[in-house]
Amino acid sequence: MPLKFALTLLLALATVFSIHLGILYYMELPLFENRMVLAYVVNLALAVIIFFVLHRYRVKFQNALGFLFMGGSFLKFIAFFLMFYPAYKDDGKIQGIEFAAFFIPYVVALIFETIQTSKMLNGLQKPKD
Length: 129
What we know:
Helix content is about 75%, strand content about 0%. α3 runs antiparallel to α4. It has one domain. It is globular and about 50 Å long. By secondary structure, the protein is mainly α.
């Protein structure tokens, strides 16, 4: 299940990345600016790590998986503020294109994580007789 998640997320982010580049190209904006590649890679890596951890401890910490999931989201925010925010804030403001460079892969990864974590939690629940 974790490997399937990683491959599916990789495919989804690669597709979204291609569309993102296509839109930037169409709008005649710089293609690889604003740490866009790093944003996609970091979001992929963090999402896969978080999901692997959740999957690994799904039985042992079944009642705390929601908190572990939220901790993973917190980890992503820390990554944003350490790796992206200073560069985006260099000119005194965060532009929409800078925000999109990080936020688009973040949202895609978050949606995949949420869906798969929900499926995993539903699979852990045993029907009552």
